[in-house]
Write a structure and sequence with these properties.
heterodimer; A: 20 strands; globular; B: mainly alpha; disordered N terminus; disordered C terminus
């Protein structure tokens, strides 16, 4: 179709792990200097393709059919020795998790130097000069000082800069980035993507970006390939794909993506005369570990949540979200201020009121699998709080379990299964059912949907809204994902370094952020420029 | 492993200095503890060496005379006074007299220790050699079945008892192949066969641990990231995987070396060496308290020094243990 030779040409490629086919009949081309996003949910085969290109699949993986060539050279049957000349030199790779992708016991400068050692005949002095220059290009103002520092002395974002320096060191024609920013905070994510975009342009490299984030793909890519169940569902230029999605799967992904749909929750109830479900005033908490001394980690936080509404708490890593939550749950006492749950101060009365407030308020954790005991069946998991909180017989408990399953839309057949046998979305539903078993008024949801794929996430968010309406529940919804918080929260607090940057109704803050930090945060969300609603 | 926290007076030393001092102090406390426990345990034993040697009716000694002998050998009949006395003497290098043989304990030890130390050192070095050879072979050899065989070797190896493999080695290397004589050899040649024998069973757990750790390290994301740079298998292995896997085996090596000194009885018996193991056997059968006490202290010192060396080496291998955690620096800034 075009006269330009593609950098990467994949044609009719099928891969299998042992007997199981992982990807089937994949064909696509990457043209020089373009950014292609490979999007899909977990298990769609997008990472398999990335690893296949650089030939890093586990030994039980094998090609069933098809070809894969880089600048006309087939990559599927080159010998390891040849392959090692291609890796790093022709293909730069940026791994997913920066925090564990550098050798912990070698200074970062040496790790950048290694790629020059492997592929060039530069002398020691020249290599060092090149590394210092690279460090400067990826945004370290004092490269000399950086050179001999170890990975653990850097933050996640800084480590990702170093990994980018390694990937672009030899200006390879192709760079593969495997979820390069999914482990980073949103503001850091933006900086990293800007940097990657700039360096790629300077070197004229093509970029294959693997991501689950549609909004990010829409912001950054020229072309998009949508993967589903090991096959390509659709591929097109970014503009055409998002304006006029052809495949039903792409349409579903777009419909479920929170970034493109700002509101989901009900509007704020007007009745404000009621006792707030939660009233936090002037809360200061000191995290009493000897690392931090007695310095308060959370200072002067105040908010109030009306019954039946959702309060979103937004903060990046290290902001003090977790400390705040633990205090809300009564696990750590505050230095100053108070927490009133339905009008009762949970820290007065020498803990007498705590068991009651424990039942009224339930915490649901982030990770779907690790928060459920792997040795218990779903039935035992849900039954446990029923035993703890109510003195009723087994028949009552069973009836109640069935009722709860219905509430969270799970089939009865799931009762005999173990957490490892069910999906992430189902696990979160079980966790919800367990929390609801105690008949709480308030649910505290800590990064509740963060580990889920977008389509699953959308169903869980729907369920939350439905439960809130039916049971008149109050939610505290903690997340780093601003788009999700916007969908579900009525009011929000933005927390940064332990202080409350902003507090108010969600739409007001999203439309007119008062603090500069909130503004930066909002601008960093991918998909902003396309929010036409 | 302990952290680097310590008293403020040591702050001037910096992270590693403080860490090293803490480790040395801990080693001294362990030695003192070992001494105290063995001292009182030996006191509690029914009967003692003085009785065994002098109560014989044929000698015709009166109880008063025996009591006097006892005071002569141990300074006092009061255990607490004896304890303080013995510690004081030991710190000056005086280990007392053997009741059985009537010679200074120090003389006995001086004769036996070099034999045991030579055996331990050579055996230990050999075991490191086996461990590394197995690890490198099991990771880098081109043939898959050979790699798997090497992987299985340590498990098989550790199941072989020392007295059996020792006899087998003598049989094979001396009697059949005539490579080395067993009797009438110099101090270093004599130690080669027993060193091979002891090195095998102690290499096995070390090799097993190292292989396990290598497997774990290979799964870490950074290893994949380095492969994408285009580094060869061998270069990834020697530069990144091996150094990141060695710490647990090093910790184990420390324990093993101490064991070599303290537990030489079987080897020395099989190979007819007059080292500490031999001395221990004699001292136990004669209830020779002073000798036993000295042997225990030497064993404990072996353990403590070996482990101290390992603890001081580990921060040199793992930079994350060298400086204070990064998080602390950031928070203490403002």
């Amino acid at each position: 179709m075009s006269v330009v030779t593609p950098v990467l040409d994949v044609s009719d490629l099928s891969f299998a792990y042992g007997e199981k086919t992982a990807v089937e009949n994949i064909s696509f081309r990457l043209l020089p200097g373009r950014i292609t996003a490979l999007i899909g949910e977990s298990g769609s085969g997008k990472s398999t393709i990335a690893k296949a290109i650089i030939r890093l699949l586990p030994p039980n993986a094998h090609v069933l059919q098809g070809t894969l060539s880089l600048n006309g050279q087939s990559l599927l049957n080159v010998r390891l020795r040849e392959l090692n000349k291609i890796r790093g030199r022709q293909i730069g790779f940026i791994p997913q998790d920066p925090s564990s992708s550098l050798d912990p016991r070698i200074p970062v400068g040496r790790q950048i130097e290694e790629i020059l050692q492997l592929h060039t005949s530069l002398g020691r002095y020249e290599r060092r000069e090149r590394v210092l220059h690279l460090l400067e290009r990826v945004g370290f103002p004092e490269p000399e000082r950086c050179f001999s520092k170890f990975p653990h002395e850097f933050s996640g974002g800084m480590k990702q800069r170093i990994l980018i320096a390694i990937a672009v060191a030899l200006a390879p024609p192709l760079i593969i980035a495997d979820e390069p920013t999914s482990a980073l905070d949103v503001t850091v994510q933006k900086q990293i993507l800007d940097l990657l975009g700039r360096l790629r342009e300077e070197n004229g490299s093509s970029l294959l970006m693997i991501t689950h984030d549609l909004a990010l793909a829409r912001d950054r890519a020229d072309d998009v390939i949508v993967m589903q169940g090991g096959r390509i569902a659709e591929q097109n230029t970014t503009r055409l794909l998002f304006e006029n999605p052809q495949s039903p799967y792409t349409r579903k992904l777009l419909a479920d993506s929170p970034a493109f749909h700002p509101r989901l929750a009900s509007t704020l109830p007007s009745d404000r005369t009621e006792t707030p479900a939660i009233e936090v005033s002037d809360l200061t908490i000191s995290h009493n570990s000897d690392r931090h001394g007695s310095k308060p980690t959370v200072r002067n936080i105040s908010f109030s949540v009306q019954p039946g509404t959702t309060h979103g708490i937004i903060g990046e890593s290290g902001s003090g979200k977790t400390t705040l939550l633990r205090c809300l749950m009564g696990l750590i006492p505050p230095l100053a201020g108070s927490v009133l749950i339905q009008g009762d101060d949970i820290f007065s009365g020498h803990g007498k009121k705590r068991p009651a407030s424990f039942r009224k308020m339930q915490l649901v954790y982030q990770n779907p699998w690790s928060s459920l005991d792997p040795r218990q069946t779903v039935r035992r998991i849900i039954e446990e709080p029923l035993r703890n909180h109510f003195r009723k017989d087994a028949a009552w408990r069973l009836a109640r379990i069935h009722e709860l399953l219905e509430r969270v839309h799970l089939p009865q057949s799931i009762l005999a299964q173990h957490p490892s046998e069910i999906s992430g979305g189902q696990c979160q539903r079980v966790a919800l059912a367990r929390a609801l078993a105690a008949e709480p008024d308030i649910l505290v949801l800590d990064e509740f949907v963060s580990a889920l794929d977008v389509t699953v996430q959308a169903r869980i968010l729907d369920l939350l809204v439905e439960l809130q309406k039916e049971l008149r529940l109050t939610f505290v919804f903690v997340s780093h994902d601003l788009a999700v918080v916007r969908q579900i929260a009525d009011t929000i607090s933005v927390i940064r370094r332990g202080t409350q940057e902003e507090y108010g109704p969600t739409e007001e803050i999203f439309e007119q952020p008062a603090s500069p930090y909130t503004r930066t945060l909002l601008q960093a969300i991918p998909g902003q420029k396309h929010l036409g609603t | 492993m302990s952290s680097f926290r310590s008293g403020s007076s040591l702050d001037a030393l910096g992270g590693f200095g403080r860490y090293a001092l803490t480790q040395v102090f801990r080693a001294i406390v362990i030695l003192w503890g070992a001494f105290t426990v063995t001292f009182f345990l030996l006191q509690m034993m029914p009967g003692d060496a003085v009785m065994i040697r002098f109560m014989d009716p044929e000698l015709g000694l009166s109880p008063e005379q025996i009591e006097a002998m006892r005071v002569l050998y141990s300074g006092s009949s009061n255990p607490l006074v004896q304890y303080v006395h013995t510690i004081g003497q030991m710190l000056q290098g005086n280990f007392g007299y053997s009741v059985q043989l009537g010679v200074p304990v120090a003389t006995l030890i001086a004769a036996a220790l070099p034999v045991t130390l030579r055996l331990a050192a050579v055996g230990f070095l050999l075991s490191l050699l086996w461990t590394l050879a197995i690890a490198v072979g099991a990771s880098l050899l081109p043939l898959r079945w050979l790699r798997q065989a090497l992987h299985a070797l340590p498990g098989f190896w550790s199941a072989i008892p020392l007295y059996w493999s020792g006899i087998l080695i003598i049989q094979l290397l001396s009697f059949r192949l005539h490579l080395l004589p067993v009797v009438g050899v110099g101090p270093w040649e004599g130690v080669i066969l027993p060193a091979i024998a002891v090195s095998l069973p102690i290499a096995a757990p070390q090799a097993k641990l190292l292989l396990q750790q290598i497997e774990e390290t290979e799964q870490l994301p950074f290893v994949m990231a380095i492969r994408t740079k285009g580094a060869s298998r061998a270069s990834v292995f020697f530069r990144h995987i091996l150094p990141n896997s060695i710490i647990p085996s090093l910790t184990m090596a420390g324990l093993v070396f101490g064991e070599l000194i303290a537990g030489a009885i079987v080897t020395e018996t099989v190979f007819g060496l007059n080292g500490l193991g031999h001395l221990t056997r004699e001292a136990v059968s004669g209830q020779d308290v002073a000798v036993l006490q000295a042997i225990v202290m030497i064993g404990a010192t072996g353990f403590v020094v070996a482990n101290l060396t390992v603890d001081l080496l580990i921060p040199l291998i793992n930079p994350t243990l060298r400086s204070a955690p990064a998080g602390r620096k950031e928070t203490s800034g403002s």
